Amino acid sequence: MEVLIERCAGLDVHSETIVACALIGSKDDGLIKETETFPTMTKDLFRLLKWLEDRDITHIAMESTGVYWKPVFNILEDFFDITLANAQRIKNVPGRKTDVSDAEWIAKLLRYGLIEKSFVPPADIRELRYL
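Given the sequence above, the corresponding structure tokens read:
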């Protein structure tokens, strides 16, 4: 398949941790893959932001499971093109899975343009909804 995004990351977001997998490169044979796990406190989300910026990531994808994606999205939305994916549509094949493999799977799907974006209202509308 053709690589559409050369610098992307997949985030596997949970209540206590976020696993980020960055994929960098235009061809599969020279692909650079880096994975890091971050806690979900605000200071750690800013560490995640810095980690992604240090790798010149342009696009990010994450699942929209529960409410855990919201603070991550709110902090990263001004810096990256974020794809919020429906979890049912990007499920990996059944079997042994880990947070690291899920983050890599999400990054690979994004890299090839295989994730459909879920609608996320603008920030001002989200603030009204929170009220």
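The longest strand covers residues 17-24. Try to locate this feature in the token string yourself.
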